[in-house]
Amino acid sequence: MTVRNIARGIRSFTSNAFLVDGERTVLVDTGNDFDAVSNVDAATGDLDAVVLTHTHPDHVGNVPAVVEAFDVEVWGYDGDHDLVDHEVGDGDTVDIGDHPYEVLHTPGHKEDHVCLYAPTAATLFAGDLVFANGGFGRTDLPEGDRDQLIESIEYLLDAVDESLSTMYVGHGPTVDADPRHHIELAHGAARMR
Questions:
Q1: pTM score, two decimals?
Q2: Which of 21, 156, 174, 175 could bridge across to 179 with cysteines, CB 3.0–4.6 Å?
Q3: What angle do the packed helices 179-191 and 146-159 form, to 10 degrees?
Q4: Using one digit for the tens of pLDDT, what is the confidence trace for 131-161?
């Protein structure tokens, strides 16, 4: 399984956008305000689906262009959102690359936020819940709630184990050294008022 951040080096208002190839080539978040279609095309030439961690504009701005170019459908937590074709709920699984990923509903940054965890791949897509070095998602936007975010980080800590080896985050660098520790740091930082 290969994971590429097709938004790497982009200087615009965008999230990371992770292209995961394997048995089912999936784009986890599409980013915003750059040519995601050309970047996917250059990397794999094809796409099977889009999976969203949440629907903030910086994560979904490129969805319409990607859907049109590759004729794919979009999976996300909020089945009522115009961009989401298939609703996924807490505890559901979605195939990404070569592995099934468990959907973990983790609100606090945004109500429809999910993390995607595959114990078999020891991999987590954390969206904007937690970041490297103890960073955590902002809660001052609509649908943000600090107490709920803390509960979501606790839920994530309960879900992942020590075997977690890689955490792909919505902004900033991928964490590939003791990601659980970075989640614990985020938990501590979020609890400080």
A1: 0.97
A2: 175
A3: 150
A4: 999 999 999 999 999 999 999 999 999 999 9
